[in-house]
Amino acid sequence: MTPLGRFILATLCGLVLAGLVHIATVLAIPYLAAGDAMARARATLANDTSVLVHAAKTSGPAQPAEGWLPPQDPAVAVGVCAYDLDDGPVRITAETGPLLETIALHGRGGAYYAITDQAAVRGTVELVIMTQRQFDEALATADEDERNRDVRIIAPSRQGFVSVRVLAALPSQQVQANDAARSVSCTIDGPDE
Question: How many CA atoms lie within 13 Å of 52's alpha carbon, on the beta-carbon side?
């Protein structure tokens, strides 16, 4: 093999190796990051309601928020609550109002379910997050009315978080949006409820 051929072969091998290392690094980042969304949302695990992590910008005094999100739309308030299905199914309850509200469920792999306030029944959005085993048990023990009432979602993993986004279309709605983003209930759905 000529020196030029060896140089080209070495260069191609180096590029392939660099590409493989780059791809492996990018794919490993979510699992190795210490301050990812899952880790930060876990701080809200003990709360019964969502925690405001980004407040809609108000013209008056600043609304307190956790503030770990990257810059967001100033007209949107964001609330977060974490869940762990080892403790049992989790019931998410949001009272809707005149503002656009979205609820997204996130696992380690990203968002797996989303819903808007348009799905509310009598002004309330209610979701029950559960594992497949919990779903099978609930289905076996629930009566007909219970089965028709709940929106049950099977989570891909036992741990995750719920993000609530509320849009304040007008400056006068910003305080209301912040209150709505921090008022979503995230509670363990016990058998006695």
Answer: 21
The per-residue pLDDT for range 136-180, each reduced to its tens digit, is 888 887 776 655 667 889 999 888 899 999 999 888 888 898 888
Residue in this structure with the two tokens 């309850």, named with its chain if needed: 93
Nearest CA among 131, 7, 188 for reference residue 139: 131
Give SS3 for 11: helix
Instruction: Please tell me whether residue 58 adopts helix, strand or coil conformation.
Output: coil
Instruction: Please state the three-class secondary structure of 63-126 as a single string.
Output: CCCCCCCCCCCCCEEEEEEEEEHHHCCEEEEEECCCCCEEEEEEECCEEEEEEEHHHCECCEEE
Whole-Å CA distances, 72 to 67, 96, 175 = 10, 22, 16
Residue appearing with tokens 């999100």: 69
pLDDT in tens, 73-105: 788 888 888 888 988 899 988 888 889 999 999
Per-residue pLDDT at 144: 64
Cα pseudo-dihedral 18, 22, 28, 34, rounded to 10: 110
Residue appearing with tokens 């990812």:
36
Q: Please report, as a single letter, which amino acid is at residue 89.
A: P
